[in-house]
Specification:
13 helices, mainly alpha, two-stranded antiparallel sheet, Glycosyltransferase, two-stranded antiparallel ribbon
């Protein structure tokens, strides 16, 4: 089966999902939330590769529906995520009705979103403001949008803000000895919570850092710092990859369960890093393809990506991460889409 056909199968499952499952609403496209935002971006990236007009029509229809609704989404770190793909669609279609929506979200992030010490983006959600907390997740959910909007609208201050957020998250979340990232940091209590090297948290950085570079095409001092942190992390991920290609949900705790969404995002970051010149072919080509193959093996006959950990709040002990349910989710499908785009590109280049 071609990678584009696999992507269509994964998308079909997502379109059929109604959220009535153990994922606590994380397997549905009928909300404006972060799982949906991750899925939308993955869907858009597959459309960029295969040019399937039905995929584009689906995306345009999704945004037409949500932008016409009277009830507007609560503004928090997670609900920024869908605006990334909206910005991509504005760049492609120049549909003027998208622009005020994009600009209003820019204004909220830049002027109203809660900040930590030193101006970090506080990981505020609908349920909890997470006072003075930095989380890995924020880089994917918010900063890629800022970078894309900065490029599309020719507003360099947005790109610079995205770069700064990467740098401050690196400073407080990356372990300088092993290169891996902690899930979060609190300025209020000045610690890294459970000191968990959570797989999907690491994967948000693996995917987001190379995506930031691809979006902005910048090679300034900030980007070189981001790349050096990324290289340290990828080397650590190479060391901790399991023989089956997957990563355990706590990367350095082998007895925890293998987790697919993190593996997909890591495979995406590594394969894209090779293509864009951030990584040498060896040993990372084998690393990326081993993980990609392991993710493909987790796609069942319905198109559901299995082995995905459910939504994961900040843990105060490692057991918290071990106890998270495993169930298909929209973000699991979405990160698999991203990985599939790199596999499509490799196929095209071979042809």
């Amino acid at each position: 089966m071609k990678y584009s056909e696999i992507a269509a199968k994964v998308l079909g499952m997502l379109q059929r999902a109604d959220g009535n499952d153990p994922s606590r609403g994380h397997l549905t496209m009928n909300n404006w939330e972060w799982p949906t935002g991750v899925a939308l971006y993955g869907i858009y990236k597959t459309y960029q590769q295969d040019g399937n007009k039905e995929t584009l029509d689906y995306l345009l229809g999704w945004y037409d529906d949500f932008l016409s609704r009277e009830e507007k989404p609560h503004r928090n770190v997670n609900t920024v995520a869908p605006v990334l793909t909206l910005t991509c669609l504005y760049d492609e279609t120049k549909n003027e009705k998208y622009l005020p929506v994009i600009e209003s979200w820019i204004d909220w992030v830049m002027k109203e979103m809660p900040r930590t010490e030193y101006g970090g983006l506080q990981h505020c959600t609908v349920w909890n403001k997470h006072y003075q907390q930095l989380w890995c997740d924020t880089l994917f959910m918010v900063c890629l949008f800022l970078a894309k909007a900065g490029v599309v609208l020719e507003r360099p201050e947005l790109i610079e803000e995205a770069e700064y957020q990467f740098l401050i998250h690196i400073r407080y979340l990356q372990n300088k000895v092993n290169g891996l990232f902690y899930h979060g940091w609190t300025f209020d209590r000045r610690h890294n919570f459970a000191e968990a090297f959570w797989a999907r948290g690491n994967a948000w950085f693996t995917a987001a850092a190379i995506e930031l570079y691809d979006i902005t095409k910048r090679d300034n001092a900030a980007m070189r710092m981001i790349r050096s942190a990324w290289l340290d992390q990828v080397l650590a991920l190479w060391k901790y990859q399991r023989v089956n290609g997957l990563y355990t949900t706590l990367i350095n705790v082998e007895e925890t369960y293998c987790e697919t969404s993190a593996t997909a995002a890591i495979a995406y970051g590594v394969l894209k890093g090779i293509r864009l010149g951030w990584l040498p072919q060896e040993p990372y080509q084998d690393m990326g393809m081993l993980s990609a193959g392991a993710v493909l093996d987790q796609i069942d006959e319905t198109g559901a990506v299995q082995g995905v950990s459910g939504g994961t709040g900040m843990g105060h002990n490692l057991q918290h991460y071990k106890d998270i349910i495993v169930t298909p989710t929209a973000y699991g499908q979405g990160l698999t889409f991203l990985m599939l785009t790199e596999l499509m590109i490799r196929d095209t280049r071979r042809d």
